[in-house]
Amino acid sequence: MPDAPGLELIAQDLNEAAEGSVLGTYHEHGQACLIVDPERILEVLGWLRDSPGQEYRFLCSLHGVDYLPAEPRFGVVYELLNMPRVERLRVRAALRDPAASAHDGEPGRPPSRRRGGDRSDELLPEIDSCVSLFPTAEFHEREVYDFFGILFRGHPDLRRILMPEDYVGWPQRRDFPIGGEPVIFTHNEREVPRWYE
Amino acid sequence: MRREKLRALSPLEEPGPPTDLRVRQLRARDLLRGDLEGAALEQHVKESVLTTTLDRTMRWGRANSIFPATFGLACCAIEMMSIVSPRYDIARFGAENMRASPRQADMLILSGRVAIKMAPVIRRLYDQMLEPKWVISMGACSSSGGMFANYAVVQGADKFMPVDIHVPGCPPRAEALVYGFNKLQRMILGNPDPGWRRRYNAIGTEEWAREAPSEAAREEAEAYAAAREASTAHNAELAGESG
User: Fold this and answer.
1) Angle of helix B38-48 relative to helix B19-33, nearest 10 degrees?
2) Distance in angstroms (rounded) separating the CA atoms of residues B129 and B161
3) Which of B116, B145, B151 sits opposite A181 (nearest CB)?
4) Taking the model in full, what pTM does it have?
């Protein structure tokens, strides 16, 4: 685990190697995290994997986060591990929700459209796929796509992995309805007339 | 002397005279020889022949020889496994032979939550089973979605397939499942114990009985109506006295 000064050194080196790619750092609970520009995620991951002295060669996990009221709304988090030194480093890329900015009329990058499916006009956030750097990311990225609807550019086979292929919606987003059915008790049975049929 | 004492203590009916068996044996031999005639023949037939309907016999046979499918969905399956163990022993009711293929099974126990991705698979298994077939929905999850009120779980397996018995619990104990199985047997026999339907005056509303209520159900309903009338009359009397 790089300590707080070590993390700052990594951020500094990274900013020298790839200008302006690190937006921030934080070190909490003994865990180090780099917040990076999502457009340069491949440069950052490649540098962390290959440059001497870093060599975070193992991607433990790749996951999505939805911070709904916040903007940028989505996060893609990469957990890197250096096996010989047993050092872990977290890299977080924050993504804007193109659907929200389209409503607000904010100028931004023209978002691409989701391939196939019945909601093909839906605007989805995008980030570069890191399958070329870490082959293990293939299934992780499919899972993030499945649950959060984040598109990974350059992924070899971006399909749903856990939900049925014809499922509509992104179930782990915070604005997705929880689902289920109301349970009828005596105090609310009038709200659902003829529920027993 | 000792035997006499035992007989006096026993609450059971006095057994017949010791010659009884010998008498019947001799009568059977005479019947086979063709020597039995008249009243003696009548007596023999009355004692040794049981008449019933083919339908009733078939139902009796079906209820007591059920082949459950080996099919577990989730944690309830662990409880389901123990019903074939010597402790609960569903072999007592003739259903110990869990078949590994739905084509050889005639009862499906839905033991656990049904994910939306699993629903078409279960439906296919059910369709592959041979008629007549029955389904027990075991536990809260397969009956109503249970604690999994979310996007991934079907809210009750009877949304996509017929279910005969719902066993409540999370998970139900193996005894509860065996009790549910006994209810299923009664249903197959066409002689169900109305249970809560007696308390809530709902006899004859069973889904399977809507077409033609069984004889037993009608008798129960009549008995219930009579008891209810009597109790309302009694209550009215009491109210009159106090007022």
Assistant:
1) 110
2) 13
3) B145
4) 0.69
